[in-house]
Amino acid sequence: MQFSQIVGLEETKTHLRMLADEGRMPHALMLSGSEGVGALGLAVALAQYMACSNRHDGDSCGVCPSCRRMAKLQHPDLNFCMPVVKVTPTKDEDPEAYLRDRWIEALQTNPYLTPSRWYTELGATGKQGLISAEMAEAIIEKLWYKPVELPMKFMVVWQPERMHPVAANRLLKVVEEPPEQTVFLFVSHHPELVLPTILSRVQQVIVPPVLEDDMVKALQHEGADSAKAQEIARVARGNYAQALELLREGDNQEMLALLMDLLRSGYSNNYEGIFTWVSLVLALGREREKELLAYLARMVREIYMLNLNLPELCYLIGPAREFAAKVAPYVNGRNIGWLLDAYQEAYQHVAGNGNENIIFTDLGLRHCQLLGKGVV
Ligand SMILES: [Zn+2]
Fold first, then answer.
1. Distance from the CA of 207 to the center of ligand 1, in angstroms?
2. CATH for 252-371, options being 1.20.272, 3.40.30, 2.60.40, 3.90.1200
3. In terms of domain of life, where is this protein from (predicted)?
């Protein structure tokens, strides 16, 4: 990953380059920024920059052997520690290798990986992961080996705020007295939740929201016209991951239509409508069905923000936003938890090769119970 792949944030990049160029890199750095601004991508770009044998123009070269392996996230001196949920690999893979493969795939294709996106990749939409004591132990063990190829090795710790207290205390000892040639790159979305003892031992760099102008340019580069890019940048408020989702959803009328059918049939207790909806969903195929479930979970959360009268936290534009405003009264504090659980459960059953007809019929009918006039 190169700095140029992360949108904007010029001041932050300059600061990080300076630390590296002047040999002032602390042994533990923490990049703190909201989800979607690019803090995780920046940490990886910084590691690649420091490892590059031919940096120029303020970035890693992208072509030297070190850069090529860093770009694939498979450099032997690049280690990751991130929260995970319990997974059940489908093949005979061991869980650790399975997680590593999913992680590399997820981050490589998306430098703006967010926690919810990551848990969705693991088949656990709506769940919260944790860095367990065992994981921290396994990571710490790796650090006692000498770097394989570089003068130093990197440990990128994503979301130290999601660390089990036992894990945090073990890691703390290592951060206090780190093995030689180790650089810790913490990336936090909630530094206020990081253990104060860890916080006091890292040098913190704040990663600000992406500037609207930078975002507009980047969105145009991704193919949006000027008006669309400006509309998205305004709603996304510095969160580029969100902006990309909005851009892609523009091309995704099918998912929006399915959301509308489901919620409308649900709140009007229209069983006929639910059965029609199920037949449309079954035509999608298993992979798209999983995407639909992740989409539904995200959308009802957005709609719920309008129900709470927090429009500034609702990241929707165009027809999706108009629809959300109409159905907001039906998605409320009494049913939001049930709805999210229902999508999560359906996702697991679809991923586990359950009978899709039964899964989606059950899900559809639950919308009648949860949104239907009798309950609301
Ligand atoms: Zn290079």
1. 24
2. 1.20.272
3. Bacteria
